[in-house]
Amino acid sequence: MVFLAASCGMPVAALAQERMIVKQVLVKAPVEAVWQAWTTSDGIKSFFAPDAKVEARADGAFEIYFNPYGAPGTKGAEGMRFLALQPQRMLSFTWNAPPHLAEVRGQRTSVTVRMHPAGDGQTQVTLSHSGWGDGGQWDQAYAYFDRAWGNVLANLQKRFSEGPIDWTEWLKGLRASMDAPAKKPL
Asked: Which of these, 89, 94, 91, 35, lies nearest to 63 by C-alpha position?
């Protein structure tokens, strides 16, 4: 007998094998503060990236600009949208691959961030990233984000233990690399 998942008609065993990245951290801040960090442009700029456009509502913008000086399509997570929000508990959004993975960049995966009070004014944050294809650049994107989400969550912890990230040097380096003349092959 094969059991099918009611929502999609897939065999339950296939769903159990769905590839997913799951990362978890304990943040030394109350849920309200962590929620604000994820759901406002200023909050995102305090730990995630130097610029952002965040409209915390279903189908609102969740655009994260790692390179605000880049040409359209190369700034970062452009065109991403919130899927759902449950204040101070859960948010989900679409996500794409980095520009260097052009074969899969135009497709979307989904990320869910859950927040739970953990006592002593702390918050347990769990990030789940799903919707992965298999092979080629899908595997490269999965490996990339398996590393990257750990860094993002570490920056979130650092934001609340040491203060907001200062992106000044990052931005100077980006500007310098973009202004440098292209090297010609010998």
From this structure: 94
Best CA proximity match to 55, nearest among 30, 33, 83, 25: 83
Note whether residue 15 is domain-resident: no
What value does the mean pLDDT of the chain take?
A: 92
Give residue for tokens 């004014």: 121
116: part of which helix (H) or strand (E)?
A: strand 109-117
pLDDT digits (tens, 9 = 90+) for 136-177: 999 999 999 999 999 999 999 999 999 999 999 999 999 998
d(CA 72, CA 77): 11
Residue 55 falls within a domain, yes or no? yes
Rounded to whole angstroms, the Cα distance separating 9 from 123 reads 36
**144: CATH:** 3.30.530.20
pTM for the model stands at 0.87
Does residue 179 sit within a domain? Answer: no
Number of separate domains in the chain: 1
Its domain, for residue 58, covers 20-164
The answer as to whether 118 is a domain residue is: yes
Residue 184 CA neighbour count, 13 Å, CB half: 1
